[in-house]
């Protein structure tokens, strides 16, 4: 059985041999450069923050899961970034660690900035043009 089809059959071989390539065809394009690094998934960042905080407190997965009233396997999957937890589950896990939901999300946002090397966007109040007028409150 032959491995290569004759060039006049119109069949493209799976592994083209340089000797079978007609001179009129251009050489294949070089391989594209490595793709840009992807941004991490939010669930990975949140899971990393939860795990780091739990380990910093020297608490077990079972202890935190029991305090948060969620199953230990589910909390483990959230920490590993395998599950996209609801805000209720994240709030319960954060509370079990002595954090608020805002604290958890703020730390995850800080981790995103650290990992991607990007600065956080300016606060909305500072993004606008400065207002030099007088502000009165009643």
TrEMBL record:
Gene3D superfamilies named in the record: lambda repressor-like DNA-binding domains
One Pfam family hit: HTH_3
InterPro entries in alphabetical order: Cro/C1-type_HTH, Lambda_DNA-bd_dom_sf
Protein name per Swiss-Prot or TrEMBL: XRE family transcriptional regulator
Record-annotated HTH cro/C1-type domain positions: 50-104
Database matches in SMART domains: HTH_XRE
